[in-house]
Specification:
mainly alpha, about 35% helix, three-stranded mixed β-sheet, two-stranded antiparallel ribbon, about 210 residues, 2 domains, Muramoyl-pentapeptide Carboxypeptidase, domain 1, globular, Lysozyme-like
Length: about 210
Amino acid sequence: MLYNGNNERVASWHYTVDESGIYQSVPDDEVAFHAGDGANGTGNRYSIGVEICVNHDGNFIKAKENAAALVRYLMDKHKIDINHVVPHNKWSGKNCPRHIRAEGWDKFINLIQGSSVVSPKPQTYDKNANYHRLLKVTSPMMKGEDIKRVQVRLKSKVIDSIYGPNTREDVMSWQRVHDEKGNVVKAGKGLDVDGIVGLLTWNALFGTN
């Protein structure tokens, strides 16, 4: 959430994307105030907000590709057609996203549809259910029995064997209140909350045997 103490502006969005990854801050089914069309506006109440963040020396092209992969994932997950993928400008009238609009919104739509980038399908299915790799959100997304095992352990709403943003959020929630031995602890006293399943988090989830 963004809060400006000078004008009491409050804003929030569901996903932040840069050249390195995808980060979820608000669940898909909760309202975030990102559209600029008012508290009861259609954009705020019924759309998923994605923010692309790049430093002046960052890789904007890669960030766009990650955003396109995320949008494709969300389209598939929620059965959203391409005509309902719209820019911030639709809701607020602002020239936003400025750089993408300058290049042409249709080019970004083509990117989502896979005409200019590798389709954001999950990586080749991995059948190893034991710990043997770092699990995190990537583009294309990781898929395998080890991810399914994590989802089952966390009682995720969706068991699809894909390490997407929702699984990352489930992992973060678990890390926040569990220590390296898997014991329940006070929020903030647990593992590093990074949404990544490395060896430490894996052993906390399943033990070392």
